[in-house]
Design goal:
single chain; alpha/beta; Rossmann fold; N-(1-d-carboxylethyl)-l-norvaline Dehydrogenase, domain 2; 10-stranded mixed beta sheet; 12 helices; 10 strands; 21% strand
Length: 327
């Protein structure tokens, strides 16, 4: 099976390494220092006391790799427009595109959302460019419940978590979905199929959309954020707005914000991915995590004053660092 990682960072490298161990023919699209490191050293996964080294073919131009059976898109949302314009040489008529990304994806309302079904979210895909270049009927969504980081280019460290939830955007129980879940299970992941992947996306977002940006502009770890009662109250208010939006589009969340805070606390004190991006001078995923929720609030008639405040403060901070587009 030919598998290509588009975005050989923390999550892409982690998944790709395990699939290579299962005998998949692994390749990667990369640039700069990451490309050079992959070509010289291959992928290195540090997992507990293990060091797993994997050889692969790494190229900057996707056309050099040709059509794949599986393309794993594991980039940050701000990179997706560029990825969409370059990815087509990897995609044949039977290629599966697995999106392992945070936040609301461009395909979120494809085959789902009642009256909003088929709507293009301007905050995520403003020109429709991504949808134009990546056929929705070849996408399988993936929600990742794992913490990984990049020690240096091509060297990935797995911290905790092993869960991958997969689903067709339409909710179909397809043979390709079952096959991919089985393959990932054989590769050592806790892989499960979802009948409504949007609900799993939304539930993960329910925690990420607040803690990530707050950590980014305060520099605080998750435990410090939740230990401050005023900040925790603000977080809960944002979450209640998102919960109301979810109910309007058919993905209700049964929990309270405090229930979710308890889940987050169990993960201990950690630096979120968005805080790591700020530290590394990389663009932040505010559109996929926060602006998309604000837009869905506008589309469903749910007022979002707390979400608006979170987005405004977050983008002001990120713009000052050159990590978010100017208006």
């Amino acid at each position: 099976m030919k598998v290509c990682i588009y975005g050989a960072g923390a999550i892409g490298g982690w998944i790709g390494t395990h699939l290579a161990q299962q005998g998949c023919s692994l390749s990667a699209v990369a640039r700069g220092a990451t490309l050079e490191a992959l070509q010289q050293n291959g992928l290195v996964l540090l997992q507990g006391d293990q060091e797993i080294r994997t050889s692969l073919i790494a190229r900057e131009n996707p056309a050099d790799l040709g059509v794949q059976d599986l393309v794993i898109v594991a980039v940050k949302a701000p990179a997706m427009a560029d990825v969409a314009q370059r990815i087509r040489p990897l995609i044949g008529p039977n290629t599966v595109v697995l999106t392992a990304m945070n936040g609301v994806p461009w395909w979120f309302l494809q085959g789902f959302g009642g009256a909003l079904s088929g709507t293009t979210l301007q905050s995520v895909d403003p020109s429709g460019l991504i949808a134009q270049h990546i056929p929705a009927d070849q996408v399988i969504g993936c929600v990742v419940h794992s913490s990984c980081s990049v020690d240096m280019p091509s060297v990935i460290r797995h911290h905790f978590g092993n869960g991958l939830i997969l689903g067709e955007p339409t909710g179909a129980d397809s043979p390709r979905l079952r096959d991919l879940v089985a393959l990932l299970g054989q590769a050592g992941f806790n892989a499960t199929a979802s009948a409504q992947i949007q609900k799993d996306v939304w539930y993960k977002l329910w925690g990420n959309m607040t803690i990530n940006p707050i950590s980014a502009f305060t520099g605080a770890t998750t435990d410090v954020i939740l230990d401050d009662p005023l900040v925790r109250g603000f977080v809960s208010s944002v979450m209640l707005e998102a919960k109301a939006i979810g109910e309007r589009i058919g993905i209700p969340i049964a929990q309270t914000p405090e229930d979710r805070h308890a889940v987050t606390r169990k993960l201990g004190a950690f630096r979120t991915s968005m805080l790591q991006d700020v530290d590394a001078g990389k663009p932040v995923e505010l559109d996929a995590l926060v602006a998309s929720v604000r837009e869905l609030g506008q589309l469903t008639g749910v007022a979002t004053p707390f979400t608006d405040a979170l987005l405004g403060l977050s983008r002001l901070h990120a713009r000052g660092l050159g990590l978010y587009p100017q208006p």
